[in-house]
Design goal:
By secondary structure, this protein is of the alpha/beta class. The chain contains ten helices and eight strands. The strands form two sheets. The chain has a five-stranded mixed β-sheet with strand order 2-1-5-3-4, covered by helices on one side. A three-stranded mixed β-sheet has the order 6-8-7, covered by helices on one side. A hairpin with a 2-residue loop joins β3 and β4.
Length: 264
């Protein structure tokens, strides 16, 4: 993997320009506030990058709402904060022009569609639970169970503070096949439309020991469908890309491959 460090860094450096605008119905000041623009990391989560957005709009909303939880929507669809930003973008890519125009809300929280996120500790808890789940799939939980609390902290702080070297100093342990040539199973999630993501137990090699590719994965998950387009990190990987390589290099920080699947 050391040879592919530049690939990992390029993925890490992925950014999206976002234009945040306060919902016009929630403007309490005489004048509507200016939009707020940010370049956000694809690999991060909205609650980790929107503190300045909240501060920008705070004085323009009703005083009763200034302690309320902020939430976001795109084209009327609430954005799930527990999905990485890049995954959310790739889910809606056919409808998006840059900058990505997102509406900010402090009222009418969609209880039936979004999880609450009152603080960053909730994001950390979600993130670490995903890392642990991925390790169960890849290494039968052997790597995370041998990590110390300081390793967990370093992993989280590397993501939170956007520090590539800090994060990968620990994450590389999770990406090594540890004595085997491949992982036991590939941690992945497929997204189609607004429904829940799809997860399966998929091994990176066939019973004959041949390495599986992205094409094999799609055949296992969507056996009766053709003309699929698979996007991750804003690109469509070639069908012949080996699954093991994708898992090691194209996984998000939570150690899952997040694949947005669309029909032609």
């Amino acid at each position: 993997m050391a040879n592919d460090r530049e690939v990992l860094r390029e993925i890490w450096e992925g950014r999206l320009p976002v234009c945040f605008q306060l919902d016009s119905e929630e403007v309490h000041s005489l004048q509507a506030p200016d939009a707020y623009y940010l370049m956000v990391p694809r690999l991060s989560y909205f609650p980790l990058v929107t503190d300045k957005v909240r501060k920008h709009f705070m004085r323009h909303i009703h005083p009763d709402k200034q302690e309320a939880e902020m939430w976001l929507d795109f084209n009327g669809q609430p954005l799930r904060w527990h999905y990485p930003i890049g995954v959310l973008f790739d889910m809606y890519v056919s409808d998006i022009q840059l900058p990505w125009n997102i509406i900010v809300h402090f009222d009418k929280f969609p209880e039936d569609e979004l999880l609450h996120c009152p603080c960053r500790e909730v994001v950390e808890s979600h993130f670490m639970s995903c890392v642990k789940e991925a390790d169960v799939l890849k290494h039968r939980s052997q790597v995370v169970s041998n990590m110390q609390k300081k390793d967990h902290n370093q992993l989280w702080l590397g993501l939170q503070n956007d520090k590539f070297d800090q994060f990968w100093a620990v994450n590389r342990k999770l990406m090594e096949a540890s004595g085997e040539e491949v992982f036991k199973y590939i941690p992945f999630r497929c997204y189609r439309g607004e429904g829940p993501f799809i997860q399966r137990l998929v091994r990176p090699v066939t019973e004959e020991g041949q390495r599986k590719t992205l094409y094999h994965l799609m055949q296992e998950v969507f056996p009766n469908e053709t003309d699929l387009h698979v996007m991750t990190h804003g690109i469509e990987p070639p069908w012949e890309t080996p699954l093991q390589w994708m898992s090691e290099h194209l996984s998000y920080p939570d150690n899952f491959l997040h694949l947005c699947v669309q029909m032609s």
